[in-house]
Amino acid sequence: MGKVIAIANQKGGVGKTTTAINLAASLAAADMRTLLVDLDPQSNAGSGLGIRKGTYSRSTYHVLVHHEPLAAILQPTALEAMFVAPASRELVGATMELAQETDRDQRLKAAIAPLRESYDYILVDCPPSLDMLTVNALIAANSILVPIQCEYFALEGVAELMETIRQIRLLRNPELKIEGVLLTMFDDRTNLSHQVMEDLKGFFGDQLFSTIVPRNIRLGEAPSHGLPILLYDIKSKGAESYIRLAKEIIHGT
C-alpha cells in the first residue's frame, strides 16, 4: 500500500509546491512509483512539471466534486515513475459545492483508495489555507510534511495547523502522523536564518528533518522550464537537498 503524505502549511510562500514537485521527482528518481496530487487552485504543481494550465479537461476538482476516477485524470511527467493529478481554478468553489455533502471531507480518501497499491508514495500538495481541501488531504494521508521558511514569522500560524492536526486525529484520522518539518529558503550567510533554525529545533525537536533546503537560484528557475530541479540542474544545492530529503523519507530517518 502506498504511503500518502500531505504537504501542508496554511502560510503561503514557504516552498510548499516547490517541495511537492521536487520531493516527488526525487522519490521517482529513486525508482519509487510516485503520484503527485495537486489540490491547490493555483495549479502550480502541474505547471512546474511542464503540464500547462488549460491543456487538460479534467482535474482534481472533477474528482472531488463529480466523482471522476482519480486514475482518469493522471498526466505523465518527464520521469517514468512519476504521474501528476493536476488542479484547476475550479477548486476555488469546491468547498462551497461540497458544503451540503455528508462525505465532503472524505472525497479524496475515497478517490485515492483504488490507486494505493499502484504507487509507493502519493504526495498531496495542499492549498495555503486550512479549508475543506486541506482537511480532505489530512484525512486521506498517513502523514503530514510541513515546510517552514527560515524567516522572522516562521512559527506564525503553526499553532493553528497543529490544532487542526489534533482535531483531525480526534475526529477522522487517528493514525495521522507528522512525517517531519522541513526548513526551507535557508540563507547560511544571515544570522536570522541560524536563529530561526535554532528556534524551530527547540519547538519541534526530532520532528525536524536533518535536510535543510537552501535559498537557491536554480531551484527558483526550474519551474519556468517545466522541470523538477534534478532534471534542470542536478548538481545544484537545491537538487542535492531534495535528494537527501527523499532518502530521509524512504529510510524513515
Which sheet architecture does the biggest sheet show?
A: 8 strands, mixed
* SSE string: EHEHHEEHHEHEHEHEHHH
State the distance separating the first and last CA atoms.
Answer: 20 Å
Radius of gyration: 17 Å
How big a fraction of the residues is strand?
Answer: 15-25%
**What is the helical fraction, as a range of percent?**
25-40%
Shape, principal axes of CA atoms: globular
| Average of the residue pLDDT scores | 95
Name the strands of the widest sheet in spatial order. Answer: 3-4-2-5-1-6-7-8
Given the helix and strand composition, which structural class is it?
alpha/beta
How many β-strand stretches?
Answer: 8
Low-confidence stretches: none
Continuous helix count: 11
Written overview of the protein:
With 253 residues, this protein is α/β, with parallel strands linked by helices. It is built from eleven helices and eight strands. It has helices spanning 16-29, 44-47, 60-66, 94-98, 107-112, 132-140, 158-171, 191-204, 217-221, 229-232, 237-251, and strands at 3-7, 34-38, 75-76, 82-85, 121-125, 143-149, 177-186, 208-214. An eight-stranded mixed sheet has the order 3-4-2-5-1-6-7-8, with helices on both faces. Strand 3 (75-76) and strand 4 (82-85) form a beta hairpin. Helix 1 crosses helix 11. It is globular. The protein starts with a strand and ends with a helix. The mean pLDDT is 95.
